[in-house]
TrEMBL record:
Molecular-function GO terms, alphabetical: hydrolase activity
Name of the molecule in the record: Amidohydrolase family protein
Classification of source organism: Bacteria, Pseudomonadati, Pseudomonadota, Gammaproteobacteria, Oceanospirillales
Domain Amidohydrolase-related, first and last residues per copy: 175-342
Keywords associated with the record: Hydrolase
Length: 364
């Protein structure tokens, strides 16, 4: 078997005293994620993830960093596998607003626009050195009646290209001022048609559903509980571990208790640990890190990494690099098993039944 130069470097570094840690800036090629690849040396290779399961290639106003440039961002990091999310809830095409938070009253509405742009870009510019999973983000969970028909249209226009759904909003308080309509219990019951179709296809769905807010931390938990109880066979990923800027003061043990109970009860549920809010307000806070590390280690097969980077046209590589670093900071403290499952991508490969394998972690 031929070896990539990085593998040789890692192998030599494990044998030679005083070997420089230059390979911290290097990353493995896509082809190395096959059975029999060199073990992963955590001391000399990046702690950031090889998977970005939550990456928005398109922004709210549609004026994006070019598709190929976003892929170049990935090539400059450890990421070799990514979900191509649009953003399903967009600002009006004739609006001058680019950040909905600064434009209260301007609607942010579900649409297919970003998904079709992503699909066209994938057809024209699919990279050979990255594995990209195209996702449907159009779904209006509060008005789900047309979802199945639109899924059929996607399959007609882009057969076998879309393999995921989400990020879609169950309840997102940040968009309340922009006419976001949370799904009700009655709405959730009407998801049965498209949830069955996702189940049959084996496609995961990533759902943004806020736990609550600083006044009532568990306010919206019953909505997610209903989704999980009605659709236990679906591969459901809970985005951002349920957190948002509206909930920044929850005790870590209360947060962990809610998630643990859900994971124990619903074996197909997974968590998406994307968005730096988790590290800024929870993981890095005094006394919290060891609690979350223990949680990640215990449920290491149920967690996916992600940056939640949004490809706004004015964002630069340094922004993506920082988001990847911050969202991956906790990886440094995980057990080898948890690191392999989460940061090295085994959970992602298993979820999508990909023919890739996370490398084993080198023995100390």
């Amino acid at each position: 078997m031929s070896c990539h130069p990085l593998m040789v470097t890692v192998a030599l570094c494990s044998l030679l005293v005083g070997c420089a840690h230059d390979s911290k800036s290097e990353s493995r090629p896509l082809a190395s994620f096959k059975a029999g690849a060199a073990c992963y040396d955590r001391a000399n290779e990046p702690y950031t993830a090889v998977v970005d399961s939550h990456l928005h290639y398109r922004p709210f106003d549609g004026r994006a960093i070019p598709f190929q440039q976003v892929n170049d961002f990935l090539r400059q990091t450890s990421v070799r596998f990514a979900n191509v999310y649009g953003i399903g809830q967009m600002l009006p095409a004739n609006s001058s607003c680019s950040n909905y938070l600064k434009c209260p009253g301007t609607p942010v509405s579900p649409t297919t626009r970003n998904d079709f742009v992503n699909a066209a870009n994938m057809l024209e510019h699919a990279p050979d050195d990255l594995h990209l999973t195209l996702s449907m983000t159009f779904t209006d969970l509060a008005n789900p009646q047309s979802t199945l028909a639109i899924m059929a249209l996607y399959e007609k226009e882009y057969p076998d290209m879309f393999r995921w759904m989400g990020e879609v909003n169950l309840v997102k308080q940040a968009q309340f001022a922009n006419r976001h309509e949370p799904a009700t219990p009655q709405d959730i019951r009407q998801w049965a048609g498209f949830m069955n179709e996702l189940e049959v296809r084996g496609y995961p769905i990533t759902i943004h559903s806020d736990l609550g807010n600083n006044s009532d931390p568990r306010l919206y938990v019953p909505l997610m509980e209903q989704v999980l109880s009605l659709y236990p066979n679906n591969k459901i990923i809970w985005a951002h571990m349920g957190m948002s800027y509206e909930l920044t003061n929850m005790k870590a043990e209360h947060h962990i208790a809610i998630l643990s109970a859900m994971l124990d009860k619903y074996p197909n549920l997974m968590l998406d640990a994307s968005w730096r809010i988790l590290d800024d307000y929870y993981f890095s806070q005094w006394g919290n890190q060891e609690k979350y590390v223990a949680f990640f280690n215990q449920y290491s097969k149920r967690i996916l990494p992600g940056s939640d980077f949004v490809a706004f046209r004015n964002n630069r590589f340094a922004v993506y690099q920082e988001e990847l670093r911050v969202t991956g900071r906790i990886h440094q403290f995980l057990s080898d098993e948890a690191f392999r499952n989460i940061a090295l991508g085994q959970n992602y490969f298993d979820l999508l039944k990909l023919e890739y394998v996370a490398p084993e972690v080198c023995s100390s």
